[in-house]
């Protein structure tokens, strides 16, 4: 029977699914009194050596008293967590709060605890203890514990390494033959870096296990050709999968052992040997039985192409939840359900576990699509020889996430980040389940390789099958935050491919200066105008005339590439009449040879009539099937529609792909040398220039990301005082908007001083307030309909004496009503300057965001606001001030005096620190902030508090809950 201290509510929010170092999953949860038998069974499977390391003495079995102690916790002073797979314990960790002298203690005054681990030998080396340490540390911080102490035998080097590698600030001592470790639980930059690195390795490994399996079973393969399962089986076999392939069909007749030469079985359990990946293509109602069979056979992961889940309604959503819970209980990860499949073109794998009938040519582009239809369109576009964009490279891996119930774009980004076979990543997203994590991963990935994203469903709810957090931010704001993280944001899949193919095989431009040359003056001028529209700096086009030969093109391009005043070259080409494929091949070779001699600048070709030029430029590097591989009908991507806007796969441009205008190439051209910079060709100047502009912006971001700046420290910030104020204020309620006095006190702890505003309920009170503050003063109406509305006459400025103040008071009350309606206040005049607004908000999806703009119509009517993710660095603050369209007003526009932008930047950095240091601060608004030639004045402020989330992106590693 549990004691009184054992009757605290069960902390369900401590439950979590985690990815381990080898890519498998485990569930972490609190240990309860119901776990006695599991604990005993677990302990029996631990070696004597591990037991000795845990208890410092031979300890063959647990006594009844031990079992009671290790399963009865109060979830405050005594906590135990277990890592489980298949419902059975594989590791445990517990802490006991201690006071002076290491004695058991309770209460907030005792902020230290002793911690101990035990990991089953079969699961040591999987990173279980490291994951448990992250979670038990988060639990301890939540319960007011600030330090852990651990005693470890010197020979137990694995456990010592778990503690020392965690990145916490720690002390180490040795006495009585025992190593004593003490460490603070406050996260440090190093501990977070360690946590993120472990997360990256684990999640990347979990995706690798799905994309590079040694053995694949397709479950639900029909006995006759056709059907989803049989089609996927045929595609895997025909692609030349290098591993073992099995067909599974529960209705196979006795004696049948093969399907088209593939070993066939009635159940995964009948397969003699390991299965790494199972492709599930059975009706949804049969999937649970299949998952159980796979789990019992130690299958590592699933691709579920079956439909009938969250996309079908509430019943399907619950079925999807159950699917994820069941798979994770066996340590398996899922792609899908409702997935189109996965592809890996590596010659060591050659896996086409998808519904795409053709294996794309191997290349350097990674593709991720949440929509199966868009996945088809993307593969088709890259697959076809000489499409609207020259097929200059192929695909490394492709993942269709379907309903994104488990494996998401975040997981695939973790894999691509370290994948040596992927140089460019393209993603079609209809929802972002964890934008805060996505932006963190995107920033890291984009610093190493380009990440191009098109987002569907931008102006409405996401697909029904996707579990997403509702955002309060407009789409334009989310897009700006993604660009800040280095994401190349495009609007259509045509632009996605246009940008991706340029980035895959051309160097990044060093700047926005563009040389234009070609044999059509009109096409050159169109390109010039397009460059100006995209913010580039084009040189006047060089017209080679329609009589230009291939040698003329070679010479002109060589000069442009050698010119230090240009950063990129766009070549415009009209076909020569009567020359046909021979002329196209000569021109392509001339351009290629010029680029090979000076490969440091990107080169693009614009052509209005394709002929054979694109084929010649792409050589044999398109994504068409190689000779000898399977081929079949490829869906025309012009027929595919996006799921989010009704636009065609061409982005609604109405322009045909150039490939549709051209005859097929008679034979495959000879491939260029390995590593050659292959030249992308575009059928329209606007498409080429838009792709180039995106590459220019990305190149600039890469250069700036090399020095991201720092979050400054301020000696006058009193973080502890602010924390005490917040704790006291929140103790009065769950969430509240602070009073003026409380707002000023909290902001003052961070060096933000708000001009006092004294209430003026009568003319005499206004006069008294003015005498207190000192003249000149301002008289303001603070009623909601008049606040910050100087245009309505609710503000009187520069009142120099009492007479002017009383006259203004009478005018306001005469115009707008009595003081009880106006809520007038008196405030000392601030120096003249530019009125601005600074806001910070915790968005449930995007996280903490800092926003800036000019006060009034610029921000309210025109939406001229700029945004940055918190924490903001000094470089972020500098760019934030300059990002709004009305920024010239701050820098001496039309002869006005420039204002003190460094003081403004420092104010924003302090607001960022306040919100970052205290997650309870969910909204801050400073309006107006008057930026004068010398200094800033905060004339109005509001702050809202709310209890912090139990876990955030800085908390322990965890998979999304379902």
Q: Give the strand content.
A: 15-25%
Helical proportion, percent range: 25-40%
Radius of gyration, CA atoms, in whole angstroms: 33 Å
**Helix/sheet category:** alpha/beta
Strand order of the largest sheet: 1-2-3-4-5-6-8-7
* Largest beta-sheet details: 8 strands, mixed
Mean pLDDT: 86
Number of strands: 39
Number of helices: 27
- Sequence stretches where pLDDT stays below 50 over 5 or more residues: 1-6, 385-392, 620-674
Task: Characterize the overall form.
Answer: flat
Terminal Cα separation, in Å? Answer: 32 Å
What does this structure look like?
With 962 residues, the protein is of the alpha/beta class. Helices cover 33% and strands 21% of the residues. Helix 6 packs across helix 11 and helix 8 runs parallel beside helix 9. The longest helix has 23 residues. The radius of gyration is 33 Å and the shape is flat. The N terminus is likely disordered.
Compact overview of the structure:
With 962 residues, the chain is α/β, with parallel strands linked by helices. It contains 27 helices and 39 strands.
Walk me through the topology:
Blueprint: E1 16-19, E2 25-30, H1 36-44, H2 48-55, H3 64-71, E3 78-85, E4 88-98, E5 112-119, H4 128-142, E6 147-152, H5 157-164, E7 170-175, E8 178-184, H6 189-211, E9 215-219, H7 228-238, E10 244-248, E11 258-259, E12 262-265, E13 277-280, H8 287-296, E14 301-304, H9 314-329, E15 333-335, E16 341-344, E17 351-354, E18 362-369, H10 372-383, E19 395-400, H11 409-418, E20 424-429, H12 435-446, E21 451-455, H13 475-484, E22 488-490, H14 493-505, E23 513-518, H15 521-533, E24 537-538, E25 542-543, H16 550-562, E26 568-573, H17 580-597, E27 603-607, H18 613-618, E28 681-682, H19 685-705, H20 719-730, E29 736-737, H21 740-748, E30 757-759, H22 763-773, E31 777-781, E32 795-799, H23 802-816, H24 819-822, E33 824-828, E34 834-843, E35 847-854, H25 857-860, E36 865-869, H26 874-883, H27 901-917, E37 921-931, E38 936-938, E39 941-945
Parallel strand pairs: 5-6, 9-10, 9-13, 10-12, 13-14, 14-15, 18-19, 18-20, 20-21, 21-22, 23-24, 23-25, 23-26, 26-27, 27-28
Antiparallel strand pairs: 1-2, 2-3, 3-4, 4-5, 6-8, 7-8, 11-12, 16-17, 16-19, 29-39, 30-33, 31-32, 31-33, 34-35, 34-37, 35-36, 37-38, 37-39
Helix pairs in contact: 6-11, 8-9, 11-12, 14-19, 15-19, 16-17, 20-21, 22-23, 26-27
């Amino acid at each position: 029977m549990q004691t009184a201290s054992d009757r605290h509510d069960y902390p369900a929010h401590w439950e979590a699914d985690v990815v381990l170092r080898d890519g498998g999953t485990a569930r972490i949860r609190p240990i309860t009194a119901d776990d006695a038998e599991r604990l005993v069974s677990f302990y029996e499977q631990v070696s004597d050596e591990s037991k000795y390391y845990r208890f410092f003495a031979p300890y063959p079995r647990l006594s009844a008293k031990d079992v009671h102690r290790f399963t009865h916790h109060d979830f405050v002073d005594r906590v135990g967590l277990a890592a489980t797979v298949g419902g059975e314990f594989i590791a445990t960790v517990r802490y006991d709060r201690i006071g002076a002298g290491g004695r058991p203690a309770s209460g907030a005054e005792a902020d230290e605890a002793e911690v101990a681990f035990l990991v089953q030998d079969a699961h040591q080396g999987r990173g279980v203890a490291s994951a448990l340490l992250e979670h038990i540390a988060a639990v301890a911080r939540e319960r007011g514990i600030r330090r852990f102490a651990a005693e470890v035998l010197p020979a137990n080097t694995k456990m010592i390494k778990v503690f020392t590698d965690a990145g916490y600030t720690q002390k180490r001592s040795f006495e009585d033959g025992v190593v004593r470790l003490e460490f603070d639980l406050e996260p440090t930059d190093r501990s977070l870096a360690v946590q993120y690195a472990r997360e990256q390795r684990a999640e990347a490994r979990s995706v690798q296990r799905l994309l590079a399996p040694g053995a694949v079973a397709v479950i639900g393969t029909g006995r006759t050709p056709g059907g989803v399962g049989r089609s996927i089986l045929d595609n895997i076999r025909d692609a030349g999968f290098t591993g073992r392939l099995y067909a599974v069909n529960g209705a196979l007749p006795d004696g049948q052992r093969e399907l088209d030469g593939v070993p066939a079985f009635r159940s995964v359990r009948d397969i003699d040997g390991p299965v790494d990946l199972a492709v599930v293509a059975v009706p949804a109602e049969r999937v649970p039985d299949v998952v159980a069979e796979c789990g019992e056979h130690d299958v590592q992961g699933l691709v579920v192409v079956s439909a009938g889940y969250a996309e079908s309604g509430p019943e399907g959503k619950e079925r999807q939840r159950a699917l994820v819970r069941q798979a994770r209980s066996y340590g398996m990860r899922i792609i899908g359900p409702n997935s189109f499949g996965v592809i890996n073109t590596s010659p060591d794998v050659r896996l086409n576990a998808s519904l795409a009938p053709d294996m794309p040519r191997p290349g350097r582009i990674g593709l991720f699509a949440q929509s199966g239809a868009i996945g088809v369109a993307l593969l088709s576009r890259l697959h076809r020889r000489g499409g609207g964009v020259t097929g200059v490279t192929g695909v490394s891996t492709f993942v269709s996430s379907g309903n994104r119930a488990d494996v998401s774009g975040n997981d695939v980004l973790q894999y691509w980040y370290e994948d040596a076979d992927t140089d460019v990543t393209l993603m079609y997203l209809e929802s972002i389940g964890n934008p805060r994590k996505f932006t963190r991963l995107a920033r890291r990935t984009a610093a190493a390789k380009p990440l191009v994203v098109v987002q569907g469903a931008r102006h409405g709810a996401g697909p029904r099958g996707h579990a997403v957090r509702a955002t309060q931010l407009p789409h334009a704001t989310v897009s700006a935050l993604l660009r800040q993280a280095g994401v190349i944001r495009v609007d259509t899949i045509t632009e996605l491919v246009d940008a991706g193919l340029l980035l895959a095989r051309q160097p990044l431009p060093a700047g926005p200066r563009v040389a234009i040359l070609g044999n059509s003056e009109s096409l050159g001028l169109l390109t010039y105008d397009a460059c100006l529209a995209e913010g580039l700096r084009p040189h006047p086009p060089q017209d080679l005339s329609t009589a230009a030969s291939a040698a003329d093109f070679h010479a002109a391009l060589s000069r442009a590439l050698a010119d230090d005043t240009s950063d990129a070259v766009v070549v415009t080409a009209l076909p020569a009449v009567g020359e046909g494929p021979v002329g196209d091949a000569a021109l392509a070779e001339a351009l290629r040879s010029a680029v090979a001699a000076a490969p440091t600048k990107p080169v693009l070709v614009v052509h209005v009539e394709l002929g054979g030029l694109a084929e010649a430029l792409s050589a044999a590097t398109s994504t068409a099937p190689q000779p000898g591989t399977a081929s079949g009908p490829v869906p025309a991507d012009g027929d595919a529609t996006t799921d989010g806007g009704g636009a065609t796969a061409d982005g609604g441009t109405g322009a045909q792909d150039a490939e549709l205008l051209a005859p097929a190439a008679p034979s495959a051209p000879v491939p260029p040398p390995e590593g050659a910079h292959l030249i992308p060709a575009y059928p329209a100047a606007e498409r080429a220039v838009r792709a180039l502009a995106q590459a220019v912006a990305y190149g600039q971001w890469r250069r700036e990301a090399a020095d991201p700046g720092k979050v400054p420290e301020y000696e006058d910030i009193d973080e502890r005082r602010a924390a005490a104020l917040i704790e006291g204020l929140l103790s009065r309620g769950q969430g509240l908007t602070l009073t003026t006095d409380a707002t000023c006190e909290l902001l003052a702890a961070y060096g933000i001083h708000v001009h006092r505003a004294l209430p003026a309920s009568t003319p005499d009170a206004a006069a008294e307030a003015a005498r207190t503050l000192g003249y000149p003063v301002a008289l303001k109406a603070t009623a909601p309909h008049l606040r910050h509305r100087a245009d309505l006459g609710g503000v009187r400025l520069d009142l120099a004496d009492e007479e002017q103040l009383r006259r203004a008071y009478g005018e306001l009350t005469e115009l707008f009503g009595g003081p009880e309606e106006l809520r007038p206040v008196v405030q000392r005049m601030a120096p003249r300057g530019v009125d601005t607004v600074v806001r910070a908000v915790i968005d449930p999806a995007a996280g903490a965001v800092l926003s800036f703009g000019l006060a009034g119509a610029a921000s309210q009517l025109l939406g001229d606001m700029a945004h940055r993710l918190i924490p903001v660095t000094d470089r972020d603050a500098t760019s934030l001030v300059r990002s709004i369209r009305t920024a010239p007003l701050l820098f001496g526009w039309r002869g006005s005096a420039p204002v003190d932008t460094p003081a403004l930047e420092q104010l924003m950095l302090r607001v960022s620190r306040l919100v970052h240091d205290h997650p309870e601060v969910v909204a801050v608004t400073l309006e107006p902030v008057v930026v004068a030639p010398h200094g800033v004045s905060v004339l109005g402020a509001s702050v809202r508090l709310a209890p912090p989330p139990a876990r955030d992106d800085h908390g322990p590693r965890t998979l999304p809950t379902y």
